[in-house]
Design brief:
This protein is α+β, with helices and mostly antiparallel strands and about 850 residues long. It is built from 28 helices and 31 strands. An eight-stranded mixed β-barrel has the order 23-24-26-27-28-29-30-31, surrounded by six helices. A five-stranded antiparallel β-sheet has the order 2-1-5-4-3, with helices on both faces. Strands 7-6-10-9-8 form a five-stranded antiparallel β-sheet, with helices on both faces. Strand 14 and strand 15 form a beta hairpin. Helix 22 packs parallel to helix 23. The termini are far apart.
Length: about 850
């Protein structure tokens, strides 16, 4: 009786019965008995009865209309349906209803919305049939109304649920597959993606088993059969499926019986867990390693309560820090003993904790029982309960002792000399910069002492670098005892030290006196004997001093000034001190200008020329010459070698200068070879130790000979004894290579410097030269005469020729001849002269 079909049937049957049992009234209503029965029947249903006249105006509405309606039954009387407020009905629907009404046809379940008492709307369904009067004329309509709000709401909810279900299925990350009788009938996009299918058509109709890895056919088949036979849900388990490209994937799958399209089917849901399985495999493979690393890790874990007291510390804290867990539990950071942080650091950290903020890399350090310092880096984050109540902190600590020690070591290496432990050049420059700023601001005075050890290179080369290092360490220790605590002692490198004196007298003379006093103290200290390699050794310093505070100065200026003063001390005989002055700076500027001019002169070589001094034998015959370079500078005029050769050696210009001399000399030899009167001459060319150390020196000589066409046998390279103090073995190798080409060698200035007879024996020499300093007084000084005899005797014993330099008188020549020296060079015969003059000189001598 509650269905619309049943009610409509009752209504229609009642109407029909009433019409058949009694004559119709003129107003179209039922007879009293029929109407009473009909109204009683309507009262038993949830429907209401209504009647309209021939103008479609309501003339009767039963009281069974729902109370939720905003309008009562009486409000409908005299109005048509479309004159009353409604919703949910389009004009098209109203049009169709009017067509039925005007055609006097029945209508069934016409749905619309009416205002509800609560301000909303209720859905109603109307059904009606036309009525007629006794004459058979159209009298209006009668019918039933029903409240279908609940049904419409249920339908709406159903539609929403279905839409949500469809969206969930379409967008679900799980793969969903429905198969019936073993064949796939439905797959969602996730299943297509996991199986690698571009469209659902690739999968629909195929056997589900074809998507299962053969390894799992039996187990998966049994699970599916259990679902079909027993209607049981199959719980989640691991399996393997096959993609359409036959690549296996790991999945988690479950199944359940469903009805699909009206027939029993099986729903399978699955998820690709290949990445997770790979991760699990990787984790399993590394689990043992991770466990071992965790056990060996210096990290430790901790927790604190809301009062910042430790409530938990992992065991690693003991191993990495030396702290004992029982000593820490119940205490805060700042209550632990020997944690070396400043009160300001603790205050800042407490502010972080009180504000419940995360903190990272708080560094704390403390000494252990053995006095060794430990460093830890601690990080933590606040903990809160589910209701937001602060519960404390938890975090990790890491032993960073090794890193801190390494950082300190890096700092030491960066700013301190590894050998002596003194500040190095970098730290010295930083401290000097600060000192200058303070001095300039307060008009204070200071001093910088530049200290260089005399003859340190000789000691280093003879006794070895290890012994030299010991000397440097002892020098550093002595320097530190000579200065005040506020002063700085630094090592620049090699045998160079710097002392910075601060806070001297404001008076310049007094400040200079204070600096001089400390300088003399250093001289005395460094002159005391040293014990090196079991033997006593003496060393002395040369000290240059410059004052700070005279004017605004830079660090580089100070170092240059003190360096210049130090060289003045060396020039004064070493083992002394000198102050920098303006005249010295002028000399430096002049030297810099000369260097610039020399560079320009070397560019084209037009300013350079060779002069030649003849070598004459005891019979007066010219047997050779020595090539000596001269520099004719446009503004300076003729510059002698003594003025520019030392500069060339210190600036490195000796290398291009030496190449020019060698090339020009070889060209001259080639020209002499064309002159019968001069073809027999040998030409001596001076070579510096710096040139000999060049890796390609042999190639340079060979190249000059080849380009010029000169005979190697006519070229003799003159070396000085300075070549014997550094890497003699390498030099001997180069000399042997040149000797094989035919080049000869002579040792110039023999006896004036350091020479080792053992090396002298190994050198492939042809000739020794007696230095002019011995020849000058050979007739008056027994020592010089003895040295000359010794050199001649040494030459004979080694099979070497001997040439005497600086012969100015016949008496000197005769003495030298008497002791066995038969070739001479000096002003007695000729000064060095340009090539044209030399050629003329040889021509006049007739080559004899």
């Amino acid at each position: 009786m509650n269905s619309s079909n049943s009610v409509s049937s009752v209504q229609l049957q009642a109407s029909t019965s009433a019409s058949a049992a009694e004559p119709a009234r003129r107003d179209g209503s039922l007879g009293p008995d029929s109407e009473a029965r009909f109204r009683a029947l309507i009262a038993l249903t949830s429907d209401w009865y209504w009647e309209q006249d021939d103008q479609y105006r309501f003339v009767h509405v039963s009281d069974t209309m729902p109370s939720s309606f905003k309008y009562k039954a009486a409000d409908f009387l005299g109005h048509t349906s479309w004159e009353l407020p409604h919703a949910g009905v389009s004009q098209d629907q109203w049009g169709k209803l009017r067509v039925l009404l005007h055609a006097r046809q029945s209508f069934h379940e016409f749905e619309m919305q009416r205002p509800a008492l609560d301000g909303g709307w209720v859905w109603i369904s109307l059904s009606g049939v036309p009525t007629s009067n006794a004459e058979g004329e159209f009298a209006g309509y009668c019918g039933l109304g029903r409240d279908i709000t609940q049904r419409k709401m249920a339908e709406q909810h159903l539609r929403e649920s279905q839409n949500q279900y469809q969206e969930l299925v379409q967008w679900a990350p799980l793969g969903l597959c429905v198969h019936h009788n073993g064949r796939i009938v439905y797959v969602n996009p996730a299943a297509m993606r996991m199986w690698g299918a571009a469209t659902a058509t690739e999968l629909r109709g195929t056997r589900f088993q074809s998507r299962i890895h053969p390894q799992y056919w039996q187990s998966e088949g049994a699970r599916i059969q259990a679902i079909v036979d027993k209607g049981q849900h199959a719980p989640i388990r691991h399996s393997k499926y096959l993609r359409v490209d036959d690549r296996a994937i790991d999945v988690e799958t479950q199944g359940m019986p469903i009805v699909y399209g009206g027939t029993p089917a099986v729903l399978i849901s699955f998820q690709d867990i290949s990445a997770r399985k790979q991760t699990e495999t990787t984790l399993r493979d590394s689990e043992d390693r991770f466990r071992i690393l965790t056990q060996l890790s210096s990290d430790w874990y901790w927790e604190q309560d809301a009062q910042h007291r430790f409530v938990m510390l992992s065991g690693a804290v003991t191993a990495s820090t030396g702290l004992k867990t029982p000593d820490c539990i119940g205490k805060t950071h700042w209550e632990l003993p020997s944690l070396n942080l400043t009160p300001q650091d603790w205050e800042r950290h407490q502010q972080v904790l009180e504000s419940r903020r995360e903190f990272r890399d708080l560094e704390i350090h403390w000494p252990d029982t053995a006095g060794r310092m430990h460093w830890s880096s601690v990080s933590g984050a606040p903990m809160f309960s589910a209701t937001g109540v602060f519960r404390g902190y938890r975090g990790v600590g890491r032993d960073v002792t090794a890193q801190k020690l390494a950082a300190e070591q890096i700092h030491r290496l960066a700013f301190y000399d590894a050998l002596t432990g003194l500040p190095n050049r970098r730290l010295l420059q930083e401290q000097l910069k600060k000192t200058l700023q303070i001095n300039n601001r307060h008009r204070a005075r200071g001093a910088l002492l530049f200290i260089d050890l005399d003859n340190f290179k000789t000691l280093n080369d003879t006794l070895g670098h290890d012994v030299g290092d010991v000397l440097l360490q002892q020098v550093a220790a002595r320097l530190s005892t000579c200065v005040r605590e506020a002063d700085t002692v630094a090592r620049l490198g090699g045998d160079e030290f710097v002392v910075v004196l601060d806070d001297l007298s404001e008076d310049a003379l007094d400040a200079a006196s204070q600096a001089e006093a400390i300088g003399k103290k250093i001289l005395t200290a460094l002159n005391s004997p040293y014990r090196l390699a079991g033997r006593e050794h003496r060393s002395s310093p040369s000290i240059g001093i410059t004052l700070m505070g005279e004017s605004v100065q830079s660090v580089d200026d100070l170092l240059k000034q003190a360096d210049l003063a130090m060289y003045q001390a060396k020039a004064a005989g070493r083992n002394t001190l000198r102050f920098f002055d303006v005249a010295m700076q002028s000399e430096v500027d002049s030297r810099a200008a000369m260097e610039s001019d020399l560079r320009d002169g070397l560019q084209g070589g037009e300013e350079l020329e060779l002069h030649f001094q003849p070598m004459v034998d005891v019979h007066g015959r010219i047997v050779g010459a020595e090539a000596l370079v001269r520099w004719q500078q446009p503004e300076r005029g003729l510059v002698m070698p003594a003025d520019f050769i030392p500069l060339a050696e210190t600036t490195g210009l000796i290398l291009p200068l030496g190449k020019w001399v060698l090339s020009t000399a070889c060209n001259q030899l080639a020209q002499w070879a064309l002159e019968p009167l001069m073809a027999h001459l040998t030409l001596a060319v001076n070579v510096s130790a710096r040139e000999l150390r060049e890796p390609d020196f042999v190639a340079q000589v060979a190249k000059a000979l080849k380009r010029s066409g000169a005979l190697a046998q006519r070229l003799r390279l003159e070396l000085t004894e300075t070549v014997l103090v550094h890497r003699v073995e390498d030099i001997i190798v180069k000399m042997d290579e040149l000797r094989q080409l035919g080049v000869g060698f002579s040792l110039d200035d023999f006896g004036t410097g350091y020479s080792s007879l053992s090396y002298l024996k190994q050198l492939p020499l042809d000739l020794l030269k007696i230095d002019h300093s011995f020849v000058r007084d050979v007739l008056n000084d027994p020592n010089d005469a003895a040295i000359a005899r010794t050199i001649v005797g040494l030459g004979k014993s080694l099979g070497l020729a001997v040439v005497a330099e600086g012969v100015e008188t016949l008496a000197q020549r005769d003495f030298l001849a008497d002791i066995g020296c038969f070739v001479y060079q000096g002003f007695l015969f000729a000064d060095p002269m340009p090539i044209d003059d030399f050629n003329a000189f040889v021509a006049r001598a007739g080559g004899l």
